[in-house]
Every structure is written in structure tokens, then in C-alpha cells.
């Protein structure tokens, strides 16, 4: 999610922050997995280091459901600027007790780095502490570079080399900081990357450059050695849009087989899930007012979108992380809660049934960040039940 989306979330009654950041890309191909050159040797045997002999597909089956620690470590200009407290062990314990198996931790880095992109030791240590809280709670954990001021959102050839150099510098430091962690920690290279202020399908240039970011991320992490030689890594589709991803994203070359995920996000229809100014407040088969619903993005649409990811990636050994999804509430339409819950339940269930790992976008509306109390127990229960 972008900075402005989080500001919107604070200013409105939405439980979610709107987001249109970007990440991933590459030359178009009808078979994005087959187009990649991936190591063909079987995954290595389990090692004392904690890197089990699990393919990413096998690991994915252990990770659902997930929740985002949104508007926190990625907040600008500091961790508490968007209204959330510093994470605690109690919060991670509460996520696990609620039934979540994964926490995605969006992180910004540039504000804690110097002019040469050296990340401050204090910030690396703090991210280390939060990851340890998640590990202690028994959670799978995903950390990323999350918008971070938008420096990756220039998918043009003239900016490609400079961005890849910074990406390599950052991931070399981040990965080195966590090189001894076991396979419950995953790295995701970026978040919703694409060319700023453009819409629709990417050009061949935009796709190729964004695909290069994914490859640079994988290469940088693998080069740090240790457990990172085997770590499960997450690359992203262009703007994390499903149709763009299927059409233009390739799977990076890797030095080890079966250790990559592809990530997409899902907020269809936007005017229902995130647009607090919209009059669209109903969704799905139970909608009663044609003027209050965008019928195109119904249950069948969701099923078809997730099937596309299953066919293009999941069925070919690259499982899919649904890194963000969720729907907010509009105070002007108190009856929306019924439809919001129906959307949350159906999207979670459909994603899971199609083999995706659903990770709900939350900025503090699901579980109280200070006390660990469940603020939306109905939706939490539906999410957990939908993945059982």
C-alpha cells in the first residue's frame, strides 16, 4: 500500500487502507512458468539449520490464513505516525490465538538508510525483534520492501540500472540480517510495483523492467548464502493485478528448485472494497439494489481470477500468495456490513480452495494492537473457518 492510501484510511471509517502501489513485471508470455529457467534438481534434504525439505507448494499448505501488520513498520516518517503502536509479543500471540498462521509485515527502509543506502543498525535490529515476536508465537512471517516512498515505481529502461542497484544493496543487507532464520521466514521483494500514474496493461518496457526487479531480488538474496540459499522467496506480479501477472510476469531464474511464490492482491470491485466516496455498498448474489452493486465483480469473477493464478502458477509449482485483500465499511451505509462479511468470507474461501494463501489486509481494525482483543470476531472466525 502507498502512503496516501494509509492517510485515507485514517481519515475515513474504512477498516482498510486503500492502496495502489506496485510491483513486478516482464515480457509477455502465454506460459509464465514454463518461460522461466528454473533449477530442475529436487529440493535439498532437511538441514539442521531449519530449512526443511519442503517445496513452496508444500509450505503454502501450512500458511493459511494470514493477516497483515499494516500501517506500522512501513509508516512514514516513523513507525507510529499512522496511529498504530510499536508491535509487541502479545500482539503476535493474539494473532496466533485467533487462528492466523501467517503474519505479513510491510516494512519501509529508505527513511532509516543513509545516502549510500546503508540501512541503520537500530532499524535492522528492530525489524529483527518484530520478526522474533512472530517466530516465538509460531507464525510464518513475510517481510518486504513496502512502497518505501515509491522509488521502485519507475519501470523504465532509463531508471532500471539505478533501481536494481538500490534493490541489490537493500536486499543484501536485509537478507544478511536474517540469513540464519529458519524457513518460517519468507522474503518478498517489493509491493505493488509498476509505472506510476499509468493504468491498464503494462507496456513491454514496463513489464520487462518490473520483471528485472524480481530477478534482482532473487539473485541478491541467494548471494548472501546461509539459509538464504534455500529460503522461500516471494516475487510479485505487475501492480499485483491478476490479469497483468498472468499476461506479463515470468518466474525468475533460481539456483534452487521449487522455492518461489508469486504474489497478487485482490480488491475487486474497488468501489465496494476501498472507495469510501462511492455509493456502491452491496455485493454478490444477495445484492438487492442494482444501483448499489457492481455486478461484474461477483462470486464467479473471483473464482475465475483465482483459477487463472492456479493454472498459470500454482499448478506449475509456484504457489500464490494473496498478500492483501479485504473490504471496508462506509458509515453512510450501515447495511453494508452484511455484504462486507459476505465478501470477506467468499474471497477467503475461494482463494484458499484455488490453492492461494489468503493474507487479510488489516491496519488495526481486526485485532487491537495494544491489548490483543478481537475487534471484528465475526470476520476473524469466518476467515479461519474458510481455510479449514
Can you describe this structure?
The chain is an alpha/beta fold. The protein has a single domain (3-386), classed as Glycosidases (TIM Barrel), CATH 3.20.20.80. It has eleven helices and eight strands. It has helices at residues 3-11, 56-60, 89-98, 121-136, 157-177, 204-223, 242-248, 270-273, 299-312, 336-353, 377-386, and strands spanning 66-68, 102-105, 140-144, 185-188, 233-236, 260-266, 320-325, 357-360. An eight-stranded parallel barrel has the order 1-2-3-4-5-6-7-8, surrounded by four helices. Helix 3 runs parallel beside helix 4, helix 7 (242-248) runs parallel beside helix 9 and helix 10 packs parallel to helix 11 (377-386). Mean pLDDT is 91; it is low at 2-30 and 34-48.
Secondary structure layout:
Layout: H1 3-11, H2 56-60, E1 66-68, H3 89-98, E2 102-105, H4 121-136, E3 140-144, H5 157-177, E4 185-188, H6 204-223, E5 233-236, H7 242-248, E6 260-266, H8 270-273, H9 299-312, E7 320-325, H10 336-353, E8 357-360, H11 377-386
Parallel strand pairs: 1-2, 1-8, 2-3, 3-4, 4-5, 5-6, 6-7, 7-8
Helix pairs in contact: 3-4, 5-6, 7-9, 9-10, 10-11
Summary of the model, kept short:
With 388 residues, the chain is of the alpha/beta class. Helix content is 35%, strand content 10%. It is globular.
Helix content: 25-40%
Strand order of the largest sheet: 1-2-3-4-5-6-7-8
Strand count, sense and closure of the main sheet? 8 strands, parallel, barrel
**Structural domain count:** 1
The CATH architecture classification is: Alpha-Beta Barrel
Summed over residues and divided by their number, the pLDDT gives a mean of 91
